[in-house]
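Let's practice the habit of predicting before peeking. Look at the sequence and jot down your guess about where helices and strands might fall. Then scroll down.
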Amino acid sequence: MEFLQPAALYSLLLLPLLLVPYWVKRRPRRLVFSSLLLFGDLAARARAGRWGRLYLPPVFFLQLLLLLLLFLALAEPSLSRRAASVALVLDNSASMQAAEGEKSRFQIARDEAAEVVRSLPAGARVELYLIAPALARVGETALTAGQALDRIAALKPLDLGEPALDYGAELGRLARERGYERVYFFTDRPADGQSPSVRVVTVGRPRGNLAVASFSVSRSSLTSPELSGRVEIKSFSPREEKFRLDVKGGGRVVASRVYTIAAGKSAAAAFENLPVYPYYEAEIAAADDGLALDNHRFAAAPPAGGLKILAVSPRPEALASLKAIPGVELQVVSPEAYRKGGFGPHALEIFHYAAPAALPDSSALFVLPPGGNPLAGIGAPAARPVISGWREPHPLTRYVNFALFRPAYARPLKLRQFGAPIIDSPDGPLAVALEQ
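Done guessing? Here is the structure:
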């Protein structure tokens, strides 16, 4: 017999509390009787202390049996044999890098998976899966226990978020299609429920965490030599946190401030007149943070002496107005000419009604991209969409007056694996930012 919710067995420790009502004596009451001969032995018991001799009537044992059955039912007992064909699914997303004492959550998950492998019967078939960047099998099929242990020891987490999936449905489908008798899912997500074929093993505990949500370095204008940095901090902590925020350039601290952020809130910081370096790093200096991975974010310095832009569009006249911006050097080509290549490096590539076969190495801006673009899905067109929200601070919203912003046409976007909405509407995001 196995228990799908073994943690519920700890409730059996509460059974001795049932003795308390039978052990504690009631306070005596004064009653008048014609004779006390029949109450001689009761008088001695009444004169004893409040904690008298324990007397258990038959109804006590009935109550004890009912409570025992109730607590066992909460543990969900299951009659099953030891599985000989199993799949081990490990959550290797970024949150599994959070530290839990001396080990990370992912190391604890690997140890738990190794224990499952060691408990399997001889000749069992094992297959390994990871969920990031997508749910997929790792290595060969039908691994032996020794091969599976070697594979598990070599697994590492990725700096990626977990895909948006209904894991209960996906793992159940995996068990049916591949014929697994048991699927074990090791994750830091809380388990909503178990089933005979899918077991969720939750590792770690909730911890406070601060994250650098965004970091950008820009000029006050395209031709200005002065640089300024903007940092957004997000709190995932249940309490108010005090922290130091450092901005580094060339490996040394060029600006530093101390901030206090409320639980679950965001805070913005601005750093003016930064010295010139090729790249910058924003870092949260926190003594005890749940996940150190998101305490850092990098930003490249904007180009000096003007901005070279390559614009790709089947409608070049729509982009001609960019030439009127001081400091902008614009080259407009058709999608067919872009596919042939042969263009020099540009600080920014704009794709208008177009999308490349592979993402460029430089920064890119997609305006009204086609449906086959590699970044986001396209929703139904919307005429005169209503702007319901926008993200501050962010370079895409820094110079927009949203009180006057009334777009005549838009195509809502549908995020796929990563990215963050920047401008929202009731129909979906109108602008999204994706950083890699």
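How did you do? The longest helix spans residues 58-74.
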